[in-house]
Amino acid sequence: MSVFLVKAAQLLLSLSILVVLHELGHFIPAKIFKTRVEKFYLFFDVKFSLFKKKIGDTVYGIGWLPLGGYVKIAGMIDESMDTEQMAKEPQPWEFRSKPTWQRLIIMLGGVIVNFLLGFFIYMMILFVWGEDYQNTDDIKYGYGVTKTMEQYGFKDGDKIVSINNIPFAEADNLSTYLMFRTVDNIEVKRIDGSIESLTVPEDIGTQLFESGDIPALTPRFPFKLDSIVPDYPAAKAGLLLTDKILSINGREINYYSDLTYALKNKEEEKINLIVQRDSVVKTISIIPTEDNKIGILPIPTDTSYVEYQHRDYSFGESISSGLSVGYWSIKDYLAQFQYIFTKKGASQIGGFAAIGKMFPATWNWAAFWQLTAFLSIMLGVLNLLPIPALDGGHVMFLLYEMVSGRKPGDKFMEYAQMVGFFILIALVLFANGNDIYKAIFG
Q1: How far apart are CA 418 and CA 79, in angstroms?
Q2: pTM of this prediction?
Q3: What pLDDT sits at residue 90?
Q4: Whole-angstrom Cα distance, residue 410 to residue 394?
């Protein structure tokens, strides 16, 4: 099976699970409060359904357009825009006839399920598979440092001892701390074995994002050329697979991070590669692409440059640790919004293709559930945004009603729903348009 089909199958299964359970979060409290649910659909049934069956008052079905799913609750102004029903006298089994607190619970049910599901999956991942982690010396050659991090005292070959006084083995990924959390201090172990405490500014995440120095630190590894991409600058300049790169513009190249640093921070358009070809030292002049690529792929000459330890969890330990992972997943995801609302951040928003690429190329249940847990958290956060047509929009109007004692008029709600719907369509088109643009132009 092709990589595309494997990733597509995982994406489809993950989203199907999340959509069905999210809609169940609305469906169950609606039924508890004796509110009629007219439709329960996985995917959208524009014009026709792949499958449908009516049981009681509810039609259960599968649509053909895989962009989510929905439950249609009687007496509720939603994306169906059923104004004919709303023009009739309210019935006791309709959403609009229920007390505000019941309607609020019904609307919050979906996102509550998303968050609970994310927490539960994280717990089960730790219980079933445990987790891999790294000690300070498991990064054999230390880290390669970006120009941004050099400003704050980091040096090539540094190893991380602790972050915010939390031992490296117990801390999350360093990039996560730098981009989304507050970092007070980072202890590093120098090549000579000495320990030094370094501090970074509060806006280090913004600096890294704007400079493109992400990740800020990467494990160093000695390398040789594995392949040279046809029609890229290196191939056009005559670089051979058997060539050993010695330096770029005078910077010695011992590790792959040395090469990426030299390319990104070149001072002139053209670079001079000093290579050893057999026993001869040659100079090759290359003009990299706009994104500082020359079209080579490395392979480590020492595959033990990064090692992992493994930790298993008891059921009780998995509960507390899973809760911690879920909490930080929500917090870190919310922190991403500070970058999204920038020109550069907006250009990096992705749609279904971007999400699909996150899944592994071969079927791996641990990786599948890890990503599904993250997507569940993500959907919960996004659905809480106060945009009409999303759950958060309905919650916003219900809270207004509870505080003011006044219910927004049906006509106002219809217009708000239409505006929210067009905002969502625009966002979906923009995100997936970014995917198409990147696929075409790289």
Answers
A1: 8
A2: 0.89
A3: 79
A4: 13
